[in-house]
Specification:
The complex is a heterotrimer of chains A (422), B (189) and C (254). Chain A is an all-alpha fold and 422 residues long. Chain A contains 16 helices and two strands. Chain A has two domains: 32-281, Up-down Bundle (Cytochrome Bc1 Complex, Chain C), CATH 1.20.810; 286-388, Helix Hairpins (Orthogonal Bundle). In chain A, strands 1-2 form a two-stranded antiparallel sheet. In chain C, the strands form two sheets. Chain C has a three-stranded antiparallel β-sheet with strand order 3-4-5, with no helix packed on it. In chain C, strands 1-2 form a two-stranded antiparallel sheet. In chain C, helix 2 (45-57) packs across helix 7 and helix 6 runs antiparallel to helix 7. The chains are: A mainly alpha (422), B alpha+beta (189), C mainly alpha (254). Bound molecules: protoporphyrin IX containing FE and FE2/S2 (inorganic) cluster (FES). Chain A: Heme b b566 binds at residues 110, 211. Chain A: InterPro entries: Cyt_b/b6_C (IPR005798), Cyt_b/b6_C_sf (IPR036150), Cyt_b/b6_N (IPR005797), Cytb/b6-like_sf (IPR027387), Cytochrome_b (IPR030689), Cytochrome_b_C_euk/bac (IPR048260), Cytochrome_b_N_euk/bac (IPR048259), Di-haem_cyt_TM (IPR016174).
Chain lengths: 422, 189, 254
């Protein structure tokens, strides 16, 4: 990165530190001057929102961890003690429990934003793959966190998910025993899950740092999917985007607060208020909503190993996406056919999520199978072909003048409202 | 790719001046202030969650039955996670505690300010030096040069009223809050 | 494309609705009027106090509420002296004493409600093999919450419908999953005599005990909702300011 614009710091202490360790120069570069395409819409705020969620999760998790006891005899009670006796414990726990859902909402929107505007394409492949790794780390963290309160869903969720690994021939059973540290999900399992649940968010934090570092090399994508050609196409991150993202964060917090204060258990499951009982499985065990599409894929395949592979495959294809999509055009705005399929994929994901919550039989099994087939069809067959077959619309010459060069069709088809210019 | 030049007219705060600028400054200030209030109030639950919880506070007072403690004996009870020494003092011990010249004490306090009933001495059993538990509760323990307690960590001697007499500790053993609920029962806290 | 988008939206809405529908499962659980429902609702303390009387006189002969300290009841308006009296009415195990034996002492508000049975096996043995669940969290641990509790408590039927053969020792309940339940119908008209003189109909009792169970499942519910109103109002003001700032700022771009 060009050091041409080294800032002048007035504060002597800042100046002294910066000349020895240029963290302030770096911060200024990356978060103050960082040029942001001026046409980004509010979907670009979900990265910042996800970042805030991570901070909230780590902060609340830390104080919860000071009160929580990772022992099967007292884990459930220790969570109830947090709810009843610890000052503001109920608040911290509900913020943490609902925060996991909010984190996934933010990240899923963030990802679909990337899918729509082609943010995974060159030169942003590593950026995208880091994102997929973040998703995986989040899933592992959330799964292990859900085990900690040691309710019925905690216990049976842990049992079912760890048993997935038993699908692998030969190594499967030893792996499961190793994961458990015993012959069933028990105290050693709870203990290690707590240790890992504490650790993984910091791994996640590291991945997020890399993710943003990669972002700041290639620069942000934008609704037109074309590169910024010069200063006229961008605005400095601060204050323009900080204020805009800040507004979006506050709106998101309102949505979040509505759950925390008025429906704190809506996204959870009543069975998790029953202490874990290794002798009785609840009638309907369902994972947390954010795992449902993957859970549907798992159950759609009538073979144990096949199901497990398909489920992991569903995430693996995301990582391969930069090479599966052969089109050179990034934004859906200029890909009239892919645009339709994007929405079909979005519906497919919702349908899979719904099927994942239903009993795996009859019509829902069929729906899950069709949904699964379509999911892989989209990524593995449709995208490679479409890139070759589709005729994209003409791209505008630059971000500043899309309407002039791109013709009326672009403006009319523009799904995202271009930045208002009062 | 990385562009660091501002587009013309977007140079941070140096825009169009005049009335618009002052209204913007006001908005910045108001937004910043309200945001700061929000962050500050969000911090409080985190801090307060580390203060004693309701169950801890509810157990903050306990009842102790003194009936079984014979003259000359002592018991240790746990109160708020700390040892509390309850000693049924003999006449000789009471006498010793009363006849000390207050001017000789490092932390002067008359015996009657440290007990509610002369025969019962109740003190927190934590050395005021660096927090060890002094010896002297068991009949076989050393009680130091003043018949009270002796702290083995750095050699503090306490007398029969729990006052510091010798060694590095700066202050007397702390008298906890308590009240007699009957002739032979006290409530600590 | 418009239609696709609205299809997505309606799919999302349908998902939400279906999620709620799925929750109520086969039997429809009628909704009741609760003083504590809604954003501004608060626990009806008088009702919850009556509910406590039912818990004490009826439910607690079989069910525990072992996660609930007696002092929690301050939240439904019992004074400190009343709490002490309530607590002293219970015998709690303490010890070991100097002889190494456990002994019974009168309760204090810091104690939790003592359980009717020393352990789950004893509870099963005394109840025909069925384990009466702990009631501390029951209002949060059942789909339908307090509406389900009310429906269950008023849903017993003397004679099962045609074609249903009850297993020995079981009772028929319209709302219990599977309909056969080990617990008998325990709420009788005037089965309790309310201290405050409220007529003790079965409906009244079911309502009061459900309110009480809702309270002990989440003693901070009122505080939570009251804080929520403030937090959301605050956030709306902040959002307004942020938006105004953002508009003003971006308006300088040409
Ligand atoms: C990526 C960030 C994180 C995610 C997605 C996450 C997710 C979760 C989830 C889903 C639960 C179960 C909530 C419930 O139903 O009760 C949970 C519980 C818990 N988490 Fe986290 N967590 C994160 C970060 C952390 C961190 C950094 C810590 C510690 C420093 C932590 C400590 C805890 C503790 C102690 C519990 C058990 C208390 C409870 O059940 O509420 N978490 N977490
Ligand atoms: S701690 Fe007792 S003398 Fe130092």
């Amino acid at each position: 990165m060009a050091q041409a614009h080294a800032p002048q710091f007035k504060n002597p202490v800042v100046k002294w530190i910066d000349s020895r360790l240029p963290i302030f120069t770096m911060l200024d570069h990356e978060y103050n001057q960082y040029p942001m395409p001026r046409n980004v819409n509010y979907l670009w705020a979900f990265g910042a929102i996800a970042g805030i969620m991570l901070v909230i999760m780590i902060a609340t998790g830390l104080v919860l961890a000071m009160q929580y006891a990772a022992n099967t005899h007292i884990a459930f009670e220790s969570v109830e003690r947090i709810m009843r006796d610890v000052n503001y414990g109920w608040l911290l726990r509900y913020v943490h429990a609902n925060g996991a859902s909010m984190f996934f909402i933010a990240v899923y929107i963030h990802m679909f934003r990337g899918l729509y505007y082609g943010s995974y394409k060159a030169p942003r492949e590593i950026l995208w793959i880091l994102g997929v790794l973040i998703l995986l780390a989040m899933m592992a963290t959330a799964f292990m966190g859900y085990v900690l309160p040691w309710g019925q869903m905690s216990f049976w969720g842990a049992t079912v998910i760890t048993n997935l690994f038993s699908a692998f021939p030969l190594v499967g059973d030893p792996i499961v025993t190793w994961l458990w540290g015993g012959f069933s999900v028990d105290n050693p399992t709870l203990n290690r899950f707590f240790a890992l649940h504490f650790l993984l968010p910091f791994v996640l934090l590291g991945l997020v740092v890399l993710h943003t570092a990669a972002l700041h090399v290639s620069g942000s994508n934008n609704p037109l999917g074309i590169d910024a050609k010069g200063p006229q196409d961008t605005v400095p991150f601060n204050p323009y985007v900080t204020v805009k993202d800040g507004f979006a964060v506050v709106v998101f917090l309102i949505f979040y607060a509505a759950f925390v204060f008025f429906a704190p258990n809506y996204l959870g499951h009543p069975d998790n208020y029953i202490p874990a009982n290794p002798l009785v499985t609840p009638a309907h065990i369902v994972p947390e909503w954010y795992f449902l599409p993957f859970y549907a894929i798992l159950r759609a395949i009538p073979d144990k190993l096949g199901g497990v592979l398909a489920m992991f495959g569903a995430i693996a294809v995301l990582a391969a996406l930069p090479w599966l999509d052969t089109s050179k055009v990034r934004s859906c705005k200029f890909r009239p056919i892919y645009r339709q399929f994007f929405w079909i994929l979005a519906i497919d994901a919702l349908v899979l999520g719904y099927a994942g919550a239903m009993p795996a039989e009859g019509v829902w099994l069929l729906v899950a199978r069709i949904g699964t087939a379509y999911y892989f069809f989209h990524f593995l067959i449709l995208l490679p072909l479409l890139g070759k077959l589709e005729r994209p619309l003409p791209l505008p010459a630059s971000i500043c003048e899309p309407v002039l060069k791109g013709g009326g069709r672009v403006a009319a088809g523009a799904h995202a409202k271009p930045m208002e210019k009062a | 790719m990385a562009q660091t030049t501002h587009p013309p007219g977007t140079g941070g705060h140096a825009a169009s001046g005049g009335e618009g600028a002052s209204r913007r400054d006001f908005l910045y200030l108001a937004t910043g202030a309200v945001g700061a209030i929000g962050v500050a109030s969000a911090v409080w639950p985190f801090i307060d969650s580390m203060n004693p919880a309701a169950d801890t506070l509810a157990l903050a007072s306990i009842d102790v039955d003194l009936a079984p403690v014979q003259e000359g004996q002592a018991i240790t009870v746990t109160w708020r996670g700390k040892p509390v020494f309850v000693r049924h003092r003999t006449a000789k011990e009471i006498e010793e505690a009363r006849t000390v010249n207050l001017g000789d004490l490092r932390d002067p306090a008359a015996d009657d300010t440290r007990v509610k009933k002369p025969e019962w001495l109740i003190v927190v059993g934590i050395c005021t030096h660096l927090g060890c538990v002094p010896l002297g509760q068991k009949p076989t323990d050393p009680r130091g040069d003043y018949d009270g307690w002796f702290c083995p960590c750095h050699g503090s001697h306490y007398d029969t009223a729990g006052r510091i007499r010798k060694g590095p500790a700066p202050a007397n053993l702390v008298v906890p809050q308590y009240a007699f609920t009957s002739d032979t029962a006290v409530r600590l806290g | 494309m418009r239609s696709l988008k609205s299809a997505i939206l309606s799919a999302a809405v349908a998902l939400g609705l279906a999620g709620a529908a799925q929750a109520s499962e086969a039997v429809h659980i009628p909704k009741q009027e609760w003083a504590h429902s809604g954003v501004f609702g608060t626990i009806d303390k008088a009702s919850a106090q009556r509910g406590f009387q039912i818990y004490k006189e009826v439910c607690s002969t079989c069910h525990s509420a072992k996660l609930v300290p007696i002092r929690t009841l301050a939240g439904i308006g019992f004074s400190e002296d009343e709490l002490k009296a309530i607590a002293a009415g219970y015998e709690v195990q303490a010890g070991p004493n100097d002889a190494g034996e456990m002994f019974m002492r009168p309760g204090i508000p810091a104690d939790r409600f003592p359980s009717p049975f020393p352990n789950d096996n004893a509870a099963r043995a005394a109840n025909n093999g069925a384990l009466p669940p702990d009631l501390s969290l029951i209002a949060k641990a059942r789909v339908g919450g307090e509406d389900y509790l009310y429906a269950f408590l008023t849903g017993f039927e003397e004679n099962p419908p045609e074609g249903v053969t009850l297993m020995p020792g079981m009772n028929y309940n319209k709302y219990f999953p599977g309909h056969q339940v080990g617990m008998p119908n325990i709420l009788m008209p005037d089965g309790v005599t309310y201290a405050d003189g409220t007529p003790a109909t079965v409906q009244q009792q079911a309502h009061d005990i459900s309110a009480f169970l809702t309270f002990i499942a989440e003693p901070h519910m009122d505080a939570r909702k009251q804080m929520g109103v403030k937090v959301i109002l605050f956030l709306i003001v902040l959002a307004g300011l942020m938006y105004a700032t953002k508009r003003k700022l971006w308006s300088t771009l040409h």
